[in-house]
Amino acid sequence: MKNTVITFSQAKEKNERLSMLTAYDYSTAKLIDEAGIDAILVGDSLGMVCLGYENTLSVTMEDMIHHTAAVSRGCKNALIISDMPFMSYQTSVYDAVVNAGRLIKEGGAHAVKLEGGREFVPHVKAIVNASIPVMAHIGLTPQSINAFGGFKVQGKSAEAAKKLIEDAVLLQEAGAFSVLMECVPAKLAEIITKKLSVPTIGIGAGAGCDGQVLVYQDMLAMYSDFTPKFVKKYADIGDVMRNAFKNYKEEVSKGIFPEEKHGFSIDADIIEKLY
Ligand code: KIV
After folding, report:
1. Which residue from 49, 82, 213, 223 has its CB within 8 A of the most atoms of ligand 1, so it is best to mutate?
2. Which 3 state secondary structure label does DSSP give 210?
3. Residue 45 CB–ligand 1 contact under 6 Å
4. To the nearest whole number, what is the mean pLDDT of the chain?
5. Which residue of 182, 201, 214, 231 sits with most ligand 1 atoms within 8 Å of its CB, as the best mutation to test the pocket?
6. Cα gap 210→198, rounded to integer Å
7. What are 120-161's pLDDT values in tens digits?
8. d(Cα 63, Cα 270) in Å, to the nearest integer?
């Protein structure tokens, strides 16, 4: 069944947990969709896990549109949420609406996600008014890495925790259909989840959220530069790939691959005419 933002609100009402994974390309999106995952996030983590940047700051609108379109082509049922990259919405409410629109029109996303708290309430309101669903993203917001001074758990002090609760409520009031929380203490995420009528999606935010998201390269052990504490490895596909590549190299160098069955034949009399 095709998932929409209504699926999200119904899941919260029925107390059903939502599953979300990132994807950045057609083949992976198709596999995730076939597995019945509720939503696919075309995250700006793209910059790190696919493009090899140190952080997400260099990701452009063109990158996001290109990869979102590939994911869209691979999906039948999953709700596709595309990340608004750094400086695609922070600059003005106008830019926020225009760029959110591009992710929908050119990328085929069903919704957009943007990082930040109360300071982006006007942006969220304007995007929602343009009929584009918005997922808010609070807690550790990687686009603010320079302001945070690194990837750190957020909301640990009473003041910071209170601010996160208020931000979540304000973003819901602005029209966000869901609030993603990254690296937020589990108890705090649970309080926020209970306070909101829209579903929360957690990553490093404990089991009390309404749903969970992981970066697929992390859960498949395909990205080794950095593995956050909250990642569970569901398979060691990195190892499977490395071994397959080694095997291939060996077979190519020894002339074992390709075999006759991997090639195409031609009539012998045609070959004779070539001499
Ligand atoms: O960009 C991304 O993949 C994300 C997740 C880490 C939530 O925002």
Report:
1. 213
2. coil
3. yes
4. 97
5. 182
6. 9
7. 999 999 999 999 999 999 999 999 999 988 888 999 999 999
8. 48
